[in-house]
Amino acid sequence: KQEVTQIPAALSVPEGENLVLNCSFTDSAIYNLQWFRQDPGKGLTSLLLIQSSQREQTSGRLNASLDKSSGRSTLYIAASQPGDSATYLCANSGNTPLVFGKGTRLSVIA
Amino acid sequence: DTAVSQTPKYLVTQMGNDKSIKCEQNLGHDTMYWYKQDSKKFLKIMFSYNNKELIINETVPNRFSPKSPDKAHLNLHINSLELGDSAVYFCASSQDMTGGRGYTFGSGTRLTVV
Fold first, then answer.
1. Whether the Cβ atoms of residue B101 and residue B35 lie closer than 8 Å to each other
2. DSSP letter for each residue of B77-92
3. Which of B49, B62, B79, B83 is the most buried (most CB within 10 A)?
4. What's the rounded mean pLDDT across residues B90-104?
5. Contact by Cβ (8 Å): B46, B55
6. Are A59 and A52 spatial neighbours (Cβ–Cβ below 8 Å)?
7. Do A36 and B102 touch (CB under 8 A)?
8. Are A92 and A2 in contact (CB under 8 A)?
9. Average pLDDT score, chain A
10. Closest CA of chain B from A100, distance in Å
11. Of residues B1 and B110, which shows the higher confidence score?
12. In terms of C-beta density within 10 A (0-12 exposed, 13-18 middle, 19 or more buried), how is residue A51 classed?
């Protein structure tokens, strides 16, 4: 059964730092990987989608990469800002509906 | 313009009641889902429907009954509500069952059973 692990569970950084969030899968049959952001009490906002034939996607200060052979994805956030504070979730759609990790709770301190 | 809309946004009800949550998507997607986010914020699939047909039922109690009148709608009816049903329920959709073009989520329905 597919399991998704996100490390670290929580992260607090000063504004301006570059940071990396990690995501790993137990099933190497990764079809598509999607990163989401969830603000407290809010829904999920899609950040980046890496389709199975791709290795990375970029949007603004965000870059996500996917290594299918090792079953890992990383989300890189450059020049972090207080507005980046949220929970970041990765999810793999494999051959089942999206399976989520438990998220990384990010706090960016001004 | 909302892509996936859920109603209501908040729902407070007493134990034993029956309630429904509605979901609609205007993206033309074929596949819709219900996810449950528990108190520890963990998101877990409950059901998926493809073109009105049930595809996945992830060992959800049969007090939960999804209904899809057409591929743009997926409603969730819950009978005999229990305290443990308190959670945030998210509806989502994808173009097809592979999810190859990503998933779009609604803003969630916060259910509180008292």
1. no
2. EE-S--GGG-EEEEEE
3. B49
4. 89
5. no
6. no
7. no
8. yes
9. 91
10. 6
11. B110
12. middle
